[in-house]
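Sorry to interrupt, but I need a hand with the structure work. Can you supply me with one protein entry, sequence and fold together? No commentary is needed, just the two lines. Leave the record below and I will have a look.
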Amino acid sequence: MFQMGEILGEGSFGRVYRGRRHGQAVAVKRTMLTHHAIHEVDMLRLLEHPNILSLHEAIVETDYLFMVMPLCDEDLNAFLRREGPRSQPSRLFRVMRQLAAALTECHRQRIVHRDIKPANILRRRCRFLLADFGLAAQPLLTEPAGAIVYWAPEQRRLEPYDTSVDLWALGLVAVEVASRAHCTGTPIFFCSSCGLLGILTRNCPCHSHHRQREAAVQCDIPSASTQSEPPRKKLNKFRMPTSRELALRACPRCRELRVAKANSRGKSRESEARY
């Protein structure tokens, strides 16, 4: 059994308490006994990885479910506020490598986390752990879930999506880790000038160019009162690529194939011009 103490945090699905189990300090998450809570327990039991928050035990009492987990030091937001951004490549790699390894294990088990954000990334000593699998599900998905500011383009368009949306959110987390710039729902672009992911900020060299296209790219997010109505599509000249399309653009092999195809097309045009 375990003993509960002070409150460490509170979210939409429950509270997290400091506790003790067999003489060791642990974290105890208390939530209502719902299918979401049971689903989270099943996900945590399925996933075993050094960078995924483990589950010691789950106890059901009346209408509540208690999940006993290791006690962590802080989340990624608190870590960045205290230590500052990881602007050096070696420091950024030390954080993102662990998160990418955890996400790889999730996708290997065909699990989409759907809520990748700094608040759900915990630090225990020198290790970063992916936590909070309450919204995790199996692909292919259509319903929106998680923090809107970390949604991929296909989620904003209410289109079917899969594990690639986690990679999009992880890219935004990487930007926050490197620059400590909190994502506030600003549109994200694929820009050939400033890199794979360009956040529309004044630090971006393409800021003025992207600002002119902001109205054409940003789409409507239906509110709770209008979710029953079918979403209205805008007549946009520019279509934001999906997270999977961005991943294909970033693949070196795909880039080589596109270059080879363009070169062969150019040679064929030259031969036609000669004759």
